[in-house]
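Q: what does this look like with zinc ion bound?
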Amino acid sequence: MTPDEDVALVEALRRGDEKAFAALVDRYHSSLLRLAMSYVATREQAEDVVQETWLGVLNGIDRFEGRSSLKTWIFRILVNRAKTKGVRERRSVPFSSLEGDGDENQPSVDASRFQEGGRSAGAWSAPPESWEGIPEDRLLSGETRMVVEEAIALLPAMQRAVITLRDVRGFTAQEACDVLGLTEANQRVLLHRARSKVRARLEEYLSAEPAGVGG
Amino acid sequence: MTFRRHGLTCQQVVELVTEYLDGVMEPRRRARFEAHLDGCDGCTAYLEQFRSTVAVIGRLDVGDVPAPVMSELLSAFRNWSDDRDGA
Ligand SMILES: [Zn+2]
């Protein structure tokens, strides 16, 4: 949304325009829920946090000044609520992990796939194969997306939060940093870790024969 | 396979892909990165896989708002709006 659209929407909410509110909920609710899951232990708690977020949006709408986008502002309310709730319920995300997940120094690709010594150290020994031959409908099939969903679900909390905003929801790096309170460099490291793991999982999945083919 | 093309190993290239895709690479580093790709099929395939991965993630369902949740939120909205009018 452009700043002008934000202003129009905020004015509609202040006027009590129910359709405008419904459209806003439609647009962001599911993404808010996904993000909340990075901070609290259960889906039920995440749903509570999102509910509180919407109430927070309404109660705070008169104070919204347009210094950030409406989207960023809403997601920041969510993160604040979720962190508070995470603390209160002594949740699983340990504090250190609200900045990073502790595995940022792991390689993106297993070291065994590169040559170890000599002149060619660091060159591929088992290079990845092109996916160009994979039909688009396999790459975008429900099963492939399920594999990706599962890989994302297994990511540590902050990596999951960053990849959700950047790649599922299309936030810019700056917007993700604003929402999550990360530095740009930290955000990029988390995103890179997250994408690398999902790619590795996809590579594993796609290199196996598709079900029902072969023989 | 290639050996330290333009000063970067394949193992280094795979760590730089997100920085590259975000367009925030310092120009000289970017030139070296792209020169490496030009001569390396493995890294070219890797970048393509990485891009496809991001594309698949972008196609995930964000999901709909369940009807009971929506109606609960709308009724909260009406209450909020009525309170404002009354205030
Ligand atoms: Zn290479």
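The mean pLDDT of chain B is 91. The radius of gyration of chain B is 24 Å.
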